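Justification of computing resources. Each target in the renewal requires a structure prediction run like the one illustrated here; the chain below, 99 residues long, is used simply to show the kind of job we budget for.
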Amino acid sequence: MNIKILGTGCPNCQRLEGAVKEVLSNLKIEAIVEKITDIQEIMNYGVMSLPGLVINEEVKVSGRIPSAEEIASFLQEGIGEKSENKKEGECGCSCGGCC
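Resulting structure tokens:
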């Protein structure tokens, strides 16, 4: 799963990053979390209000910090998308089967 935090490093962007990492840890989900600070790249996602949250190249939220429950739901959707696109054993997890 690929997660991007869109923002310029403002306090809300940092809070979103922290919230995402906390939910990932609580759910024991491994993911790449990337911070995107380049305004042009952020605009390429169609995001005009920061912070933004992108999971598997899909904008989930912009302009606010979602609740932990929302983040968990987005992450679980992202896992579902990933496993739908992969055959057994190709999801990249350590268990050897598509979670």
